[in-house]
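This follows on from our talk about sequence and fold. Go ahead and set the record down below:
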Amino acid sequence: MDRGAKLAAVSGSPTVRRRRIARELRHLRERAGMNLEQAARQLDMSKSNLSRIENAQIGIKPRDVRAALALYQVTGTDAEALIDIARGAQQRGWWQNYSDVLPVWFEFYVGLEAEASAVWTYEAETVPGLMQTEDYARAVYRLTAGEDDLDRKVAARIRRQEVLHRENPVELSAVLNEAVLLRSVGGPEVMSQQLDHLADLSELPNVTIQVLPFSVGGHPAMTTPYVIISFPDAADEPVVYLENLTNGQALEEQDHVRGYTLVHERLRKMALAPDESTAWIRKASRNRP
């Protein structure tokens, strides 16, 4: 397959397309021997705007992609494939219908998650969003964000979970601190239903849930929960996603991804085996007060 055909095979998520076009334009500019200031001047845009385009912080219109490709002397099938990617990046993802309740930085994450082939995550306090029941999600939002737009926030969270059940589902590996399963959120009934839901999910062939018990003591992810997202196309490199109360951050450098991947592999070895974890979760559900 030539480069143009490979580019044309890029995924359907507009977020992933925007990320791909950003990386390609940066590569082509560097190959042309131009710095940001030189290229921006030729393209009649500000240096800061071009930088934001190349970092996938903002999108770029197909006509501007065409102008950039002409500047970088890219023609033929490669050029047309990149322009097609730019057109796809202007499409709307389902999550954009929830832009009134999803922060821009989290919309970016959901756009990546929607096209993921694998999601590896460690969580210290709460059940990850991909595995929450509606009642648990509602309780979490009440505690962390109040009552505003509660139903729409929960609806968006539940919609995200379709990636676990689609034709080519996400391969999910979740390591959960024991505290996630012992901390009662929403009351005994809500928590019991959440634990049963986790145990049921762990029976899916594409879902692996492991409990990290207190008995293991210290571990390499004590300072931060994380999500590692991989994609079906090897040209779309994995991303590490970190989140705090008011913002999210995507780390794309290979050293960061490699470091978090090694941490996840270590956590999986320290945690209970998947079948032991499922039994642990079911027992915890039965024994709740």
